[in-house]
Structures are given as structure tokens and as C-alpha cells.
Predict the structure of LutB/LldF family L-lactate oxidation iron-sulfur protein.
Amino acid sequence: MTGEASGTYVGMPTFPTAAREALGNYQQRKNLHHATHTIRDKRARVVGEVEDWEALRVAGAAIKDEVLTHLDDYLVQLEESLTRAGARVHWARDAAEANRIVTGLVEAKVAGDEHREVVKVKSMATQEIELNEALEAAGIHAWETDLAELIVQLGHDKPSHILVPAIHRNRAEIKEIFTHEMGKVGQPAPEGLTAEPRVLAEAARVHLREKFLRAKVAISGANFAVAETGTLVVVESEGNGRMCLTLPETLISVVGIEKVVPSVADLEVFLQLLPRSSTGERMNPYTSMWTGLTPGDGPQEVHVVLLDNGRTSVLADELGRQALRCIRCSACLNVCPVYERVGGHAYGSVYPGPIGAVLNPQLRGTGSEIDKSLPYASSLCGACFDVCPVRIEIPELLVHLRARVVEEKRGGLPSGEELAMKGAAWLFSDATRWERAQKGAELGGRVLRKKDTLGRIPGLGAWSQARDAPRPPTQTFRSWWKREKGSQA
């Protein structure tokens, strides 16, 4: 079921094509407008309560930059801390390697079981590598336990938001999904199910409970990984994460290498920034922190897969690397006028919205048409930077990536503008050359004396079609001065 639900994002239509189709979906636009405005209003209220909010943003950005500058050292420290605490660390260069590691670990635990399955905490990293599809190909069912992820999975859909994957669905649609799909994969929805949120949540709770109690293996991501202690942190609002992290015998956590923070003290900053920016709450209802193994309490086998999957390539770009500061709060999605109208599916990735428009082309490269189009999926209004809790200059990165797309399209050849600027630099750097050029311009002006403008200029077609380029003067200032004053200017 999971493979059918997610499919592949790469190869989808370019953003303009997908966005044009999404704009025609009135119900989706209505759902998105209501949801994003509700979340952004909640965020504005709780952020307004914090007098030093800007100082917190600066601190969060500084901590992330410190980690990114010395990432190799912090990763070694994290591995040592995790190993000392009893966890086993695996390194994955790409999605294929990560999927192979996780599938192998799960196979070893569920071989011969009637129910070949795992329960999952909501995780962007596992969606990024399409882990559910890899497990399904190996005959292992991966059950999403986050309410919104469950809705997406049961609806054979794709997530459209970082925080609220089913933001494009309304309550009536969710009721229909639960009624028709729950019984196919487990406990069916109760008779007389209504669209009341409390009733829908209870139906999901009952459906998932048997899976929580039965599963031997759970899979999670992590919001933060503390290098100092080897502590992994997951924040959530429903309690399903706590169930996954504590009940099964084996826990496998797939963690992007950029999720490292130096010390437990640094969590003070992020545990204020993240809930306010994401859910509009002062603190997350559930903050789970675990450090390796504790005999007799929680999972007795813990594996941590540290995932690269393009992150070191992003790190190599001095400007682009700030995208790795992202703490997946989704604040930029909720204020983006483009996202609000087209939704997340148009971005062709589990990372939609403004952050997806800069993160996807860096993680995946710009080889596909959709990744080439994503840097243009913005009006550059700057609202995303204003709300980003770690001050990622998303508009600046979008322009940076647009330039990269253009450069790659030219195949390394210099643009007409580059050639013109180099020619101008050569001309202006020598007084004699500049004077001769002026004399040439005088000659051109006399030849074109009868024309007021030059019209279309070769090489500057589009520019000169929309503007009047005046003909060169028949006499330069130097010539006039020499004639009137009798000396060289």
C-alpha cells in the first residue's frame, strides 16, 4: 500500500505545469487558505509574547552555522556518544544505502513473523529516501502513526505540507477515507463515523493501537541529535511518537547529518523556536529524548542511521549551505502566497514550499525539469525569511539557484552579459582605448544621424525591443572640449 501511496516525486511535471493544475482545485485552495491562516495567526500570537524573539533567531542560526562549519568533528563526537550509550551507528551515503541498511535490520527482526511490519514516527528523512516503498518491496508493511500521515497513507495520497501532511484534506474527506480504507488494513472505522475532529481522532487511535502493541520494530527520525551526549530528540503533538519510541523491542532512527547540535544546553534555544514556529504552541505536548539503551526500559536494541543523501554537496556551497539550518518547522509554507494557492504537491517533493524550492535542487541537483523549475516557484516577497526561526535567507538562495540553473543551461559558456562586461572592463581600463572607442562612437553617430533611436540591437533583442536605445552622439565631450578650449580633456 505504501508504494502505491507515495510513488516517486522525481519525474513529476515542472512546477508551472503542476501549479496551473492545482489552481483549478477550488476545494484544495479553500482548505489551504483556512489552514495556513489559522496556523500563521497562532504563530504570530505566541511569538509576540517573546520579547527576545529576534535574539533567539540569531542564536539558533549561530548554533546551526557552528555545527555546519565543524560538521565533521561533531559527527565523530555524536557517533562516539551514541556508541558509548549502547546504540549502533550506521552511515548512509545516499537513499539506496540507507534503505538497504534499514530493510536488512527489519528483515532480521520480523523474519518468519505472521505480521511483517513496522510502526513509524512521522519522519521527513524517511519520506525523502522513500523508505516505505523500499520496505514494501521487501514485503514489509510500514504503518504511519501520525494522524495526518495516516490520512495520507490510507488515502493513497502524497503529503503536501511539512508539518501537516494532510493539510489539503477537509474533515468530510477524511471521514470518507477512514470509512472506506481502515478496514482493508486493520481495525475498521466504527459504524456511524462522523466528521467531528474528536470522533475522527478516536477512530485513528483505535485503529493504531493494535499495531502499536503488536509491532516489534519502530522507525523514527529525529528533530535534533546532541553530539555531547548521543541524545536523540523527537517533538510531536499527539503521543504516537512516544508510543513508537518506547513500546517496540527495536528502534531504528534515520537522522540527517545536519540535525546535530553541540550540547543539551543548545536545546533551550530550539525548543523555544520550533513549537512557536511550527504549531503556534509555547511548547510541544510531547518531547521525547532518549540516549542509547536503558536495560529493562524502552527498546533494547537501538540503531541510528546517519544520512547524507546530498547534504555534503549542499555543505560545499558557502551560500547554499544555510538551507541546512532548517529545523522543518514549516513557518515559511504558512506565509507563502504561492504555496497557499497551489499546495505542496506542485513542488514534487516531500519538502514543499519556499524551503523545498531551495532544498530540493541542492539535495537532488538540477538534472530534472522539476528541480530546474523550483527556484522560480516564488514571488521573492521575503515573507519566508521574516518568519524563519533560524534566519535562512530563502529569497537570496532562490536567486542564487536561478543563476545556477541558467549557468548549467549554457553548459559553461559565458553569457552575452558576461562578454559585454569583460569587454567594457578591458575598454575602461586604458585611457587610449577609451578615447579611440569614443571616436568610433562619433563616427557611428554621424552615419546614423537621421535616426533618433537604434531599434533592435543584435544580442540584446528582448532588451532593445522594450526600450529605446538612442543613437550615439555625433560629438563626444572630449571632442567638444578640445574644440572649444583648445586642449585635451
User: Anything to note?
Assistant: The longest helix spans residues 26-48. The chain has two domains: 2-312, 416-485. Confidence is low (pLDDT under 50) at residues 1-8. The domain at 2-312 is CATH 3.40.50.10420 (Rossmann fold).
